[in-house]
Amino acid sequence: MGSAKNKDSAARKARIEEMRRAERAREQRNRILTIAASVVIVVGLVVGGVVLVQSQSGKDDEATDAKTTGKLVAGEDGVSTWKGTLGRTHVKTSVKYPLEPPVGGNHHDAWMNCNGDVYTKELANENAVHSLEHGAVWVTYTSKAPKADIEALAAKVKQTPYTLMSPDEKQKAPIMLTAWGAQRTVTGADDPNVGKFFEKYVQGEQTPEKGAACTGGLSE
């Protein structure tokens, strides 16, 4: 009788121990699965974060001026004017403008000096556009423009506050005049439309920030 009880007790202990071993094994498997799942999630988050940063970095390098809408419309007087909205947000990135040279839009918070300043190198559009916002007229030219015209226009700019001049090989015509929201081509320094454009647009009614400084900005 005692022998039978001892056998039952030993068998029960063996079953209990087996159940405990099975439970420990199950817990260990669960821990392994949990750790593996956590590793997968962390890796996914890291990869996703890298992709997001790279994507945002690309956007920071060059941004479309989303606040600018509309188009440049040619007028009977030869002056094309912007019909629509021109963004005016200060940005730290380069901006994709729809025109070359641009007639306005989002721009850098630093303007190019435009107190009759003549530059011999191409300017960053983002800085020059800020000058336009202050009421400046921007004279630009390509290598196709005659040297005599370039020199004559430079002399005129130097005598006129709220103007600036620089080369721009990406524009469509040899000589162009640009103000905020307005632009035209001219045939040369003796074209009477040069004087007319200056008279109308230097600190003209189109100026968003009339009276703002054209000094204290950037220079070559």
From TrEMBL:
Any stretches that span the bilayer, and where are they? 32-53
Output the superkingdom of the source species: Bacteria
Would the keyword Membrane turn up in this protein's UniProt record?
A: yes
Q: Does the keyword Transmembrane helix apply?
A: yes
Q: Which UniProt keywords apply?
A: Membrane, Transmembrane, Transmembrane helix
What species is given as this protein's source?
Streptomyces curacoi
Record protein name field = DUF3105 domain-containing protein
